Amino acid sequence: MKRILMIILLVLPVSIFAQTIIKGHINDEQGLPAVNITVALQGQKNAVKTDLNGLFILSPVKDGDYKLITSALGYQSIIKAIHVSGTADIVLNLSMEPSGGLNEVVVTASRNKETIGEVPSSVKILNSKQIEVQRSISTDLNQLLSYNIPALTLGTNTATNKGQTLRGRNALVMIDGIPQSTPLRNGERDFRSIDPSVIERIEVIEGSTAIYGNGADGGIINYITRKPDKNKKLSSVTELSAMGSLVSPANSTGTKLAQLFSGKVNKFDYVLSGTFEQTGVNKDADGVVISPFQSLSETTSKNVFAKAGYDINDKNRIEVMFNYFNTIQNSNYVDSSGIYGVRPITGKLGKALGANQGTPYNYNAYIQYTNKELFKGTSLNLNLYMQDFYSIFEYSDFYKPAGNSAIGSKKKGARINFNTQYKISEQLEGDITYGVDILNDITKQDLVDGRGFVPEMNMKNFAPYAQLKTFINKDLIFKAGARYENINLGIPDYTTIPFGAYKGGVAVKGADLSYNALVFNAGLRYAKWNVFNPFVSFSQSFSLYDLGRTLRLSVVDDIKKIETEAIITNNYEIGFSSNWKKLSFTGAYYISTSDLGSSLKDVNGVATAERAPERVNGFEATANYEFLPNLSISAGYSHLKGTKEVNGEKVSLPATRIGPDKFTGSVNYSPLKSWDLSLFWIHSGNGTDFKPDAKGNYALGEGPIKSFNFFNLYTAYHFTPKVALKLGIDNLFNADYYPVLSQGKVRTESYIKANGARYNLTMAYSF
Q1: pLDDT tens digits, one per residue of 131-189
Q2: CB neighbours (10 Å) of residue 743?
């Protein structure tokens, strides 16, 4: 008996220590630690989650064959075969890739990484593949966005995004969270502020949003810039493109060269990119040269982009970014005469007076520090940024005397963002995102010859915010947040100048204006079923509407006598997302109201702000169905209506705000693994809400709009994994039409036809 007991005592420790530990590290798609990833062995009960450093340990594990499974909302699962034999620990390094649909990861909605299925509002994502396809058709970001976001009004084929509203209101455009919009004096050149080849993805948050501040009445468009290829020390992508008119190629040919390098060496990673593009003249469906007015004809554009990051350790990282964008038109054509509703303005040979129009520079830079675990359960993101923007507009005799005006805007800001995770019980957990935004925005509009047009506006904003997200029984997601706007706006004494029918010469006494407002949001989303994932939300936004337009038209001698009140917009929304087998579908209905509006009315030939109560309502839907792994179709639809209350009467908002019904559709097919083929259809409906006066004339923005259709084509052949030839055709069947704003604005200077059929041929090489 003693001998048997001795054998048991000797064998028992051996059997215990023979059990193995499986441990490892999991990164996300950016190479950063993936937090809260569930790791388990199939059929076992020892599941664990990764910590803030992306680490996990499974222990003890007996000898045998297993399947290790990783899973998390927003990521594709990993299934890896594991053979355990002996006492040696098994060490794994894994990388999780984001998944699509409801599980696609988004950061803009709450300043913290989450999935679309956790956000109680409408979110649209253009991923890197979609952007690659669309920029192969058109390098114009205005067009790229409007082709793919149903609730965004179609573009005008020009350098500006005039009339392009998101759900009938202005959108706040950002590059990596750095605001590009100039709401103090809206020049409508914020969409086209970076070359699309530098953009990794575009996140669009539709509807008013309280968490980002001034200018987000209609939502947010955030350009997320390229990330490095961390699997190589050096990778390269080279693209050479040629583009031009298919109707009349003469003088229309342009070229583009784009070069990108990226990689990771030890703890250092980087991206370096440069692009150069030169366009020829644009031509309509008849081969006639389009008016150079605010157009992209004969334009030279340059973009230099650099991003570098250093992983101090597993928890701490520092990153810097710099982007320079330049686009200038030097046209050999000038405007011919045109008559609204009769004949369009076209281009004729000649040299334009004044300075060349375009954006001489748009500088953006940031330095960012990230700490994954400042203290237990809390992370920190500190971002210091700047933007320096200067854009020159067309020469015009609208000014007295004639000249070019230019908008300059300098922004310096800091974002201090904390995120704290909490868990009260298995049925109640979540996180709190909180911090403060500090922004100094100095904006003015002068004439190039030195005359002051809009005085310098110096805005300082200190805005604390907090956002709560709670999972109730894991399936019901509740979000609520608030932001306190604390703004001081300094405006010096100035004297107005004459333009149009405005006589000018008014000496206005400056002042320091203060704005204090608490805006908030709240929403619910039920995420138990993929087949029906509903949400309901309410969100407010704060905006100082285009004060420059108001100040330059002053008829009083004191700023305090001018209407400068801010706009508070309320957005109510109900919607859902659905994924069922190979079908995905989204739908949303929304109402947006504000006591003060932002529409323009014509006063003696001058567009003037009209501060009237407004209501915008609409619905939108998207659908995608995958017939086969290599064949899918998608569709999008948007319907929008808007009214303003003037003298107690409700009248429709103009076409400069509310576009007609819009439908988009696409077919994506890969006949071969090396061959991609896509056809896109864009339909714009009729707009007939307005009637002419007794003389048959329409008011500003109230012109009749006729429907039109056009198709775009994309095809690419991959000769090898490194070499591809891409062809994009914009307006494939050469539709002859006027853009929405050209028809609805009722201004001869805007009565310009759309581009006819255009090609963009690109050879790409990567290693």
Answers
A1: 999 999 999 999 999 999 999 999 888 888 888 999 999 999 999 999 999 989 998 99
A2: 22
